[in-house]
């Protein structure tokens, strides 16, 4: 985050200011050295000396978390982001100028002239984009298909994803825009409805964005061989394409789906509430934000399945189906005391709440990072009951900070107790989140394929011998943010263009800090 408003975050902490950060992204972790949180949670930043990983506190929990997942607030002041302040200042300036009735161009009021500019920009970037897609489909894919000695159909599917489907859709979308575009008076064009009409079609970008990391890997493999380098360059020259590499072209759809909400936000800013297009543009902006959110969520979930598979492969005495057979997301995790009938002996267990199921494990007494599988609960057939402090009738004992999980058939009851009332509330919220997520997945049709599940488990078995730290892999977004591409809007800082891109994650700091830990600290 760098130095902001003249003082760095480290200075603020050292001079005794209470520094809070607001979570922009969920950070769900399986490592008890890391701090998990949900987007919107407020974290007290205790140590920010490391640029990438900070130490923070939420209620009773403390741990490391990625600095890029949060934005700072100081003593609950406004978010400390100079760029936003600068942007708001610039907007206020524009509105003042518009308010003064300043005229621009051939007698058009400022706001209408600005709307003309935005509409023209949307139309021209759309036409450029279609040309990019056409060049990829006709300049590269067509030529590659002729060379069966060099490419298999499966390889092409990995490198180019479903870009041909995107090309077909975008041509249809551009036709709709052209119909609504008023050449003589662009500012009166009503294009909001085009986005609304096709909002579900834009979801095909989800498949493309999820495949893009594989495309980069496959492409970098073939580009190690000279004949492929020469072949792709020949394709580019033959098609008279601009001088950027194929991976630059293949980034265009990822950027495009991120750019729509930015363009529509600009358009809304310069559309009078009385304009016939206002309501549609407003709805279109929300629709395209939702598309970007859905694509982002699916991307995050697919990246998470490898972490879940690795987590499972590190657990001792695992029994039954793989977690991935039913689940694809870790919603919450933490330590609770558990009592189950018929026994009344309390046991400390680590609980991991996934969508559809909750797994619980026992910690090794000496190696605190080692877990033994002890069981699971089917959340689709469980009800969560808030238990008041005092005597609990099913177990006939006095309880504090407790909640109960009871199977709908009534044949299974578990009593779970947290150390603090805040932790209990956090668990109750997590159980509600899990049900919401299951419902949302049903509505949006999200599910993992058998191939994805098998591949994740396979990768986990290969990736690390027991007891050794996992290898640090180069994050996909590192690659994304390094790309230079002509379709990037110059006025917008790059991090804003990648609204989709969750900040890069780093592998667990547990192994980095192990030397500093007291071996048997309780």
UniProtKB/TrEMBL annotation:
SMART domains for the chain: PH, RhoGEF, SH3
UniProt GO molecular function: guanyl-nucleotide exchange factor activity
Organism phylogeny: Eukaryota, Metazoa, Chordata, Craniata, Vertebrata
GO BP terms, alphabetized: intracellular signal transduction
Domain of life: Eukaryota
Domain spans labelled DH: 114-298
GO CC list: cytoplasm
PANTHER family, per database record: RHO GUANINE NUCLEOTIDE EXCHANGE FACTOR 4 (PTHR47544), RHO GUANINE NUCLEOTIDE EXCHANGE FACTOR 4 ISOFORM X1 (PTHR47544:SF3)
Main location: cytoplasm
Protein name: Rho guanine nucleotide exchange factor 4
């Amino acid at each position: 985050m760098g130095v902001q408003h003249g003082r760095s975050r480290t200075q603020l902490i050292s001079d005794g200011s209470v520094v809070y950060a607001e979570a922009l992204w969920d950070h769900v972790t399986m490592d008890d050295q890391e701090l998990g949180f949900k987007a919107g949670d407020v974290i007290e930043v205790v140590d920010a000396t490391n640029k990438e990983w900070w130490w923070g506190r939420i209620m009773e929990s403390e741990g490391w978390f990625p600095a890029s997942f949060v934005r700072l607030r100081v003593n609950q002041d406004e978010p400390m982001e100079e760029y936003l302040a600068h942007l708001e200042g610039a907007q206020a300036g524009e509105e003042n100028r518009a308010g003064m009735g300043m005229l621009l161009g051939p007698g058009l009021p400022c706001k209408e002239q600005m709307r003309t500019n935005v509409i023209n920009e949307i139309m021209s970037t759309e036409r450029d984009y279609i040309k990019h897609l056409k060049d990829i489909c006709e300049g590269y894919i067509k030529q590659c298909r002729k060379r069966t000695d060099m490419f298999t159909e499966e390889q092409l599917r990995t490198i180019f994803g479903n870009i041909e489907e995107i090309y077909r859709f975008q041509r249809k979308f551009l036709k709709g825009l052209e119909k609504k575009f008023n050449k003589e008076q662009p500012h009166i064009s009503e294009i909001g409805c085009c986005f609304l009409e096709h909002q579900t079609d834009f979801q095909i970008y989800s498949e493309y964005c999820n495949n893009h990391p594989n495309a980069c890997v496959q492409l970098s493999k073939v580009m190690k061989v000279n004949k492929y380098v020469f072949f792709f360059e020949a394709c580019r020259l033959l098609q008279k394409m601009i001088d950027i590499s194929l991976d630059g072209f293949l980034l265009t759809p990822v950027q495009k789906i991120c750019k729509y909400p930015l363009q529509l936000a600009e358009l809304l800013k310069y559309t009078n509430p009385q304009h016939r297009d206002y309501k549609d543009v407003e709805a279109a902006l929300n629709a395209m934000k939702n598309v970007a959110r859905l694509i982002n969520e699916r991307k995050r979930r697919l990246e998470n399945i490898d972490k879940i598979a690795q987590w499972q492969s590190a657990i001792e005495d695992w029994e039954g189906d793989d977690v991935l057979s039913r689940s694809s997301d870790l919603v919450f995790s933490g330590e609770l005391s558990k009592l189950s009938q018929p026994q009344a002996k309390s046991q400390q267990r680590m609980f991991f709440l996934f969508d559809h199921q909750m797994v619980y494990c026992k910690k090794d007494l000496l190696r605190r990072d080692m877990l033994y599988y002890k069981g699971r609960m089917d959340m689709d057939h469980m009800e969560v009951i808030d238990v008041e402090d005092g005597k609990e009738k099913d177990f006939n004992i006095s309880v504090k900070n407790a909640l109960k999980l009871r199977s709908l058939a009534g044949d299974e009851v578990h009593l779970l107790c947290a150390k603090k009332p805040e932790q209990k509330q956090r668990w109750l919220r997590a159980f509600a989140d899990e049900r919401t997520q299951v419902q949302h997945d049903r509505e949006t049709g999200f599910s993992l394929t058998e191939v994805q599940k098998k591949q994740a488990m396979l990768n986990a078995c290969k990736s690390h011998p027991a007891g050794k730290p996992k290898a640090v892999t180069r994050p996909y977004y590192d690659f994304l943010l390094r790309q230079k591409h002509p379709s990037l809007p110059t006025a917008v800082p790059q991090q804003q263009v990648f609204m989709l891109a969750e900040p890069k994650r780093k592998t667990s700091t547990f192994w980095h800090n192990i030397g500093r830990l007291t071996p048997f600290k309780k």
